Each structure stands twice: as C-alpha cells, then as structure tokens.
C-alpha cells in the first residue's frame, strides 16, 4: 500500500487530502490460481488523520460490510432479480431487507439464510424478535 499527497493539486476531487494505491495478491484455495489486483483511491483524510495502515484498515472494513450485508442481500434475498421498480417500492423493500438482517443479527444469527428458514417455521411467534408477545 502506498499513500501520497503529491497528486492532490492535479486532481479535481472536492476535499481530496491524499491518494492511495493498494496492491492485492491472492491465491484461490481450491485451484491454486493466483491473482493480482491494483486499486487506486482518494480520501479526504489527511496523512495526520489516516496513515497507510489506517487506510488499509478502512479498506478491509469496507469488505466486511460487503460480505456481511451486501452479499446477504444479493444472494440470500436475491435482490438483484427483484422486479419491484415503480415509485419507492425498491427503496422500501431494500429497507425492509436491511431491517430483517439487522433483527436477525441482533437476535444472534450468524448465518441469515438458515435463520430466515427458522423464522418461517415459527409463524407469528417470530414477532418475539421485536418484542411482540404471542
């Protein structure tokens, strides 16, 4: 990982404080295939606020969000194939999915798909998750 402030005066991004470059090298466990990837970015965080190690932590934190929320929405809820497109329907459904994921996480669910199946078997007793008695 590299960070720099040298390019700031050439960039037309509002509030740019530094640029960064992350090089990733990975190996697929099953096939052994190796991959390399280079990612460039800008941040409004100054070098005093975020050195290279801090920016790397923030980048890794982004992937934990991707893996814990977006992947669940894409795969478990199959959100990409949702056909609700009129009015505010898509936004409302996304909010409902986020609420469901959050409630299940707060209830201790580590894996959302089996937790959803368990909730389906509970019927109206699932309302206990939000404090509604049977």
Describe this structure in words.
By secondary structure, the protein is of the alpha+beta class. It has a domain at 2-76. 40% of the residues lie in helices and 17% in strands. It is built from three helices and three strands, in the order E-E-E-H-H-H. The chain has helices at residues 52-76, 89-106, 112-122; strands spanning 2-4, 18-27, 34-43. It has a three-stranded antiparallel β-sheet, covered by helices on one side. A hairpin with a 6-residue loop joins strand 2 (18-27) and strand 3. 8% of the residues are buried. The model has no long low-confidence stretch (mean pLDDT 89).
List keywords for this structure.
three-stranded antiparallel sheet, alpha+beta, 134 residues, single chain
Q: Overall mean pLDDT score?
A: 89
The proportion of residues forming helix, as a percent range, comes to: 40-55%
Oligomer: single chain
* Low confidence ranges: none
Radius of gyration: 21 Å
Main beta sheet strand tally, sense and closure: 3 strands, antiparallel
Q: Would you tell me the structural class of the helices and strands?
A: alpha+beta
Please provide the ordered H/E string of secondary-structure elements: EEEHHH
The tally of helices reads 3
DSSP strand count: 3
Shape, per Cα inertia axes: elongated
Instruction: Give the end-to-end Cα distance, rounded to a whole number of Å.
Output: 54 Å
What spatial order of strands do you see in the largest sheet? 1-2-3
Roughly what fraction of the amino acids lie in strands?
15-25%
């Amino acid at each position: 990982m590299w960070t720099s402030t040298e390019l700031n005066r050439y960039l037309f991004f509002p509030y740019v404080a530094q640029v960064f470059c992350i090089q990733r090298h990975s190996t697929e466990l099953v096939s052994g295939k190796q991959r390399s990837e280079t990612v460039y970015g800008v941040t409004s965080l100054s070098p005093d606020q975020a050195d290279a190690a801090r920016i790397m932590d923030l980048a890794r934190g982004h992937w934990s969000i991707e893996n814990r929320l977006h992947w669940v929405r894409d795969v478990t809820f199959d959100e990409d194939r949702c056909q609700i497109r009129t009015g505010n329907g898509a936004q409302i459904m996304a909010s409902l999915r986020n609420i469901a994921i959050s409630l299940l996480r707060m209830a201790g669910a580590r894996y959302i798909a089996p937790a959803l199946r368990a909730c389906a078997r509970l019927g109206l007793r699932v309302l206990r998750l939000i404090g509604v008695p049977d």
